[in-house]
Specification:
Elements: E1 2-4, H1 6-12, E2 16-20, E3 26-27, E4 35-40, E5 47-48, E6 51-64, E7 77-79, H2 88-97, H3 102-105, H4 111-126, E8 133-139, E9 142-152, E10 155-163, H5 172-186, E11 192-197, H6 201-209, E12 213-225
Parallel strand pairs: 2-4, 3-5, 10-11
Antiparallel strand pairs: 1-2, 4-12, 6-11, 6-12, 7-8, 8-9, 9-10
C-alpha cells in the first residue's frame, strides 16, 4: 500500500509517498506522486511504471540494551539550552551529520533542500519535538560537536550527531555518546538506538567498537516520476 506523506509533501512542496514491501517486485501506483520512498528488507529489482530509481540507501539501526553508567565526566559537554550560542553553529554541524543522508546523496534534491531539511530538524529538536536535549562539546568558545537524543516508550534514540571535520579522530564523538548514556541511566533508560547508513563505514565501525549491535537493516529506495523536475 502506498501512503502519502503530508509532512514531506508540504516541506518539499512535492507530492511524496512511501511504500513498504515484502516480496513483491512490481508496485502499482494508482495516484500520481512526484516521489515515492520504497522500504524493503533486501536489495531487489523493483518496477514502478512511470518512475525511475534515483538513489538507494541501506539504513542500519544499532542498539545497546544494557547501558551501564560510565565514569566519564566533562566540563566541556553541556546542554545547548544552557549556553548562549546561536543555533547557526548547530546548523553547520547538522550538515556534517547528514553527509551520508539520502536527502544529500540523492541528487534530485538540491543542496538547499537538504540544508533546509536539517535546519528544520535542529529547530524541531530545540523545541523538544524531535529531541529531549541537544548536548554540545565546546572548545575555545566554539561548538565543535553535538548530539541529540529522544526518549520514548522506555527507550531512547539518537537523532543527530556530528563533530567538525578538523576535530574528528579526537574521541569527541565517544565522549558525547558517553554523556548521553549517563543521562539515560539517570532516567532508568537502558536501551539506546542509533540509526545510520551502512555506507557510512566509519560510523558503523565506531558504534560496533563501543559495543552496539545491529538491530535492523532496511533498504530505502527513491523513485521519482519520470517527468518530474
Amino acid at each position: 500500500m502506498i501512503n502519502q506523506l503530508d509532512w514531506d509533501s508540504n516541506f518539499f512542496e512535492l507530492q511524496i509517498a512511501e511504500c513498504v514491501i515484502d516480496n513483491q517486485s512490481v508496485i502499482n501506483v494508482e495516484k500520481t506522486y512526484d516521489l515515492i520512498y520504497v522500504f524493503c528488507n533486501s536489495d531487489k529489482d523493483i518496477s514502478l511504471t512511470g518512475y525511475s530509481e534515483s538513489y538507494k540507501e541501506n539504513k542500519i539501526v544499532y542498539f545497546k540494551n544494557d547501558l551501564v553508567k560510565n565514569q566519564f565526566v566533562s566540563d566541556t559537554i553541556l546542554s545547548f539550552s544552557k549556553t548562549n550560542f546561536s543555533r547557526e553553529q548547530l546548523y553547520e554541524l547538522s550538515f556534517e551529520s547528514g553527509k551520508y543522508s539520502r536527502f544529500k546523496k540523492d541528487k534530485k534534491f538540491s543542496i538547499r533542500q537538504f540544508e533546509n531539511l536539517y535546519k528544520k530538524w535542529i529547530d524541531n529538536s530545540l523545541d523538544i519535538n524531535f529531541a529531549n536535549d541537544i548536548l554540545v562539546c565546546v572548545e575555545e568558545n566554539k561548538i565543535i560537536g553535538f548530539i541529540s537524543y529522544k526518549i520514548k516508550n522506555n527507550e531512547a534514540s539518537i537523532g543527530l550527531v556530528a563533530v567538525l571535520p578538523n576535530h574528528q579522530g579526537k574521541g569527541i564523538g565517544k565522549k558525547l555518546l558517553q554523556v548521553v548514556e549517563n543521562e539515560l541511566i539517570k532516567n532508568d533508560i537502558k536501551v539506546l538506538n542509533i540509526p545510520t547508513q551502512k555506507e557510512n563505514i566509519e560510523a558503523c565501525s565506531f558504534y560496533e567498537k563501543l559495543g552496539y549491535k545491529v538491530k535492523e537493516s532496511i533498504i530505502i529506495k527513491h523513485f521519482w516520476r519520470n517527468d518530474s523536475i
